[in-house]
Design brief:
The complex is a heterotrimer of chains A (72), B (331) and C (348).
Chain A: E1 4-13, E2 16-21, E3 24-29, E4 40-44, E5 47-52, H1 56-66
Antiparallel strand pairs in A: 1-2, 1-4, 2-3, 4-5
Chain B: H1 12-26, E1 46-53, E2 59-60, E3 63-64, H2 65-79, E4 83-94, H3 99-116, E5 119-128, E6 137-146, E7 163-166, H4 172-182, H5 196-204, E8 209-214, H6 219-231, E9 234-238, H7 246-255, E10 268-272, H8 277-286, E11 294-300, E12 306-310, E13 316-319
Parallel strand pairs in B: 4-5, 9-12
Antiparallel strand pairs in B: 1-6, 2-3, 4-6, 7-10, 7-11, 8-10, 9-11, 12-13
Helix pairs in contact in B: 1-3, 2-3, 5-8
Chain C: H1 3-13, E1 19-23, H2 26-35, E2 45-49, H3 60-70, E3 75-79, H4 93-98, E4 103-105, H5 110-118, E5 123-130, H6 135-147, E6 153-160, H7 162-172, E7 178-181, H8 183-189, H9 192-201, E8 204-207, H10 212-225, E9 230-233, H11 245-254, E10 255-262, E11 266-275, H12 300-304, H13 328-331, H14 336-343
Parallel strand pairs in C: 1-2, 1-7, 3-4, 3-5, 5-6, 7-8, 8-9
Antiparallel strand pairs in C: 6-11, 10-11
Classes of the chains: A alpha+beta (72), B alpha+beta (331), C alpha/beta (348).
């Protein structure tokens, strides 16, 4: 239902940020999250809704750590 | 200067418009006669096609409606195995359209026709009253091609063991047009191009081509779905082999779109005999507009028909035709 | 063998009791189809698509109001893409557009403010649909409308929230063994909301992201946690326990909870949001749009609770197809019927 993907902030002007997604840039609303230039952020419908960790590889590690005690 | 209703009157203004723009750019021995019909040399078997073009805006990143209107018709002829020879140009103009823009569009048509090796032999122009959302210009082109002896291509020709080759990155045209509308900035440009060199290359080099189709609106999924149904075979394609640029991939993700259903204007699918796979790929890759070509799957003839996409993570899903317009899906 | 391969193998080989998990997020439904997850897990594990696509659950009265507005002189309806295809009682926005109605697509609702400011003589209505993830975006739009003193842009709201509809599902069926909690709703609400729902319903919840490994990990976790309350978050890169507090504050400033009507399911108390009365001047007539004209036989409610699978609905593939969609589940590319139809997902 809620399509959102991570991008990187390349410009910041008050609560308006320019976010880059592999070469696609949009002006995104940055009033809901504290951000700075270079941050990796999650954008939904032109609005930054969260900051994300910098490293995608870490995300995968963390994901498996969360379920390592589970057996089926 | 703007297009006025007088330009469509059939009188002096019409003649002036035709001479100053159309005849100037298209200039050739058939059109220059300015007769009611063009009389041209023929061939034993002909391929004939027609297509109409509407696109807003009429200049878009990487192309324009003029180039598009030649590529679409030329590619349709090529996909039947024909050698494109003649095309026609019917324009419906909106009152108030900029004449300089029209000049650029017709010049682009002429250049593209030259590149594709076709001659614009006849044309027609009408003007409609300004209505605001017409988009300035609509173009219809019909095309005639000569069919070489023994060539016969149809979607029903796919055979067990054939490989599927796509001639380059998917989705560029669709993304280029949609970017402007959705206010997303990028460097994606339309792929609108005539596919003469690669498609003629395959046939002239004696590759066993069993089916060929340009991938336009509806995307790869719609074409393969039709092939599979017409040939009564199962087509297997592999997600990690589909050529898509990173920029278009992320563009699709932002809008909830699937590259498999994105429209193109300069890409083709060829289904060729397995033993010719490498040679066919190399012919396409060496040709103009084919540098990103890839073998994306194969044909299996058994009890099933359908298109199976093998996903990157190791799952499978069935690919149907595109339903509706392929609209963004955001919330 | 790496961890992902191990999870894949275990999910494929699972041979315990039959398990039924619901994803209550349309983007999960779409991602499960896109990745082909159904074919990668044991036939004893069933994934059921719940009522989590806002386009799909928008009732006909809302669509009727939007089509009417689009055909009103000097008025343009603005929307994200696929709402255009959804039928009201008589027509869709696509049909209205064919009759001369003005409908335009936007990626960012913030662009609507710019558009309205640039064309002060034209009226604009944004079709404000969505769940917890999208409502804060509309709150920011309202802030901007007020800051720029724009008077020709209003919202037609049909906003939904997750907790009450999850409770509704649990009340209407007892054959769900756990929930895949919506990843991007959780970004705003925090995973704590689902911890609370887990304790209440006695079922496990796993907050999941949208890529293949994340989805597989979530299904794996649900299998291990089956039948017992508990919460796991396998989307920690984006979802915290607390969520995005500023987003929730922005929502509270402009919106208040209300009863909401769901396509094919009826009225669910406290399951929606509407503009507060003091911001009524920005509303394009959203109150009371509850009517829902469905063709006889429409079984959306039973599909959405997992009671039947899409092809068991008498309309599936006959009266109701992606080309001419009626029910909530067929209208969007995220709907469960749509996904069954195009991807050949079969009940096993």
């Amino acid at each position: 239902m809620c399509v959102a993907i991570p991008g990187r902030i390349v410009e910041l002007n008050g609560t308006k940020a320019t976010v880059d997604f592999s070469g696609n840039t949009v002006e995104a609303e940055a009033g809901l999250v504290k951000v700075k230039i270079g941050d990796r952020v999650l954008v939904h419908a032109g609005c930054i809704i969260q900051t994300m960790s910098d490293d995608e590889a870490d995300e995968m590690e963390e994901l498996f750590r969360e379920i390592e005690d589970i057996q089926i | 200067m703007k297009v006025t209703m007088a330009h469509g009157s059939g009188g002096a203004s019409t003649t002036e418009l035709i001479e100053n723009i159309f005849a100037k750019h298209f200039k050739n021995e058939y059109l220059d006669q300015l007769e009611d019909s063009a009389v041209v040399p023929g061939h034993e078997r002909l391929a004939v096609t027609t297509d109409s073009f509407v696109v807003t805006p009429y200049f878009f990143p990487g192309g324009d409606i003029g180039r598009l209107s030649v590529c679409g018709t030329v590619n349709d002829l090529l996909m039947s195995g024909a050698v494109p020879k003649y095309i026609t140009c019917g324009c419906i103009l909106e009152e108030g359209m900029d004449l300089d823009d029209l000049d650029k569009i017709i010049e682009s048509m002429a250049n593209t026709a030259k590149e594709a090796g076709v001659v614009v032999v006849t044309g027609d122009t009408k003007v409609v009253e300004k209505r605001g959302d017409f988009g300035g210009i609509m173009i219809n082109t019909s095309g005639v091609g000569f069919m070489p002896k023994g060539v016969s291509l149809s979607p029903s020709g796919c055979k067990d063991g054939d490989v599927i080759i796509v001639s380059g990155n998917l989705g560029d045209h669709h993304a280029a047009i949609l970017s402007g509308r959705m206010n997303i900035k990028n460097s994606i440009v339309s792929d609108n191009a005539p596919l003469v060199e690669m498609s003629r290359g395959l046939i002239d080099e004696g590759i066993k081509v069993h089916a060929m189709r340009d991938v336009t609106r509806g995307g790869l999924g719609t074409v393969l779905h039709e092939f599979s149904g017409a040939s009564d075979c199962e087509i297997h394609i592999y997600q990690d082999k589909l050529p898509v640029s990173n920029e278009v991939r992320d563009f699709c993700k932002m809008l909830g779109l699937d590259p498999v259903y994105m429209g193109n204007e300069g890409k083709m699918i060829s289904v060729v005999a397995g033993e010719d796979a490498d040679r066919a790929l190399s012919i396409i890759r060496k040709s103009k507009y084919g540098e990103n070509a890839a073998i994306i799957g194969e044909v299996k003839k058994d009890d099933n028909s359908g298109v199976v996409l093998h996903t990157a993570i190791g799952g499978t899903r069935l690919i149907g035709p595109l339903y509706g317009e392929g609209l963004p899906r955001i919330c | 063998m790496n961890k992902l391969e191990l999870i894949k193998e275990k999910l494929k080989d699972y041979d315990g009791e039959e398990l039924r998990f619901m994803e209550v997020c349309g983007t999960h439904t779409a991602a499960i189809s896109e990745n082909g997850i159904h074919g990668m897990i044991s036939p004893k594990i069933h994934l059921i698509s719940g009522p989590g696509c806002p386009v799909c659950v928008t009732v006909t009265a809302v669509i009727d109001r939007l089509t009417e507005l689009s055909l009103t002189e000097n008025t343009t309806v603005l929307t994200f893409g696929d709402l255009i295809r959804v039928r009201g009682s008589k027509m869709s926005l696509a049909d209205a557009r064919a009759m001369g109605g003005r409908v335009e697509m936007l990626y960012s609702p913030m662009d609507a403010v710019k558009m309205a400011a640039k064309n002060p003589d034209r009226n604009y209505v944004f079709a404000a649909i969505g769940f917890e993830t999208t409502t804060p975006v509309y709150a920011m739009v309202l802030k901007e409308i007020i800051a720029q003193d724009v008077h020709n842009l209003k919202l037609l709201t049909s906003l939904k929230t997750m907790p009450e509809v999850i409770r509704w599902v649990c009340k209407n069926t007892d054959n769900i063994d756990g929930f895949l909690a919506p990843g991007h709703v959780s970004v705003i609400t925090g995973s704590d909301l689902f911890k609370q729902l887990s304790e209440e319903t006695g079922l496990p919840f796993v907050v999941a992201g949208f890529d293949g490994p994340g989805l597989l990990a979530a299904v794996y976790a649900l299998c291990g946690m089956r039948d017992k309350p508990g919460l796991k978050n396998v989307y920690k890169s984006a979802v915290s326990e607390n969520g995005n507090e500023s987003a929730r504050e922005a929502v509270e400033e402009f919106f208040e909870p209300c009863d909401a009507s769901w396509r094919g399911m009826g009225m669910i108390p406290g399951s929606g949001m509407r503009l507060k009365e003091k911001y009524g001047e920005y509303d394009a007539g959203s109150y009371g749009l509850d009517e829902d004209h469905m063709p006889p036989g429409c079984s959306c409610a039973r599909v959405l609770t997992g009671e039947i699978s899409p092809e068991e609905c008498p309309l599936f593939g006959k009266k109701c197809t992606p080309e001419d969609a009626h029910g909530a589940c067929m209208v969007s590319t995220e709907g469960s019927c749509y996904n069954y139809y195009i991807s050949g997902r079969k009940k096993r």
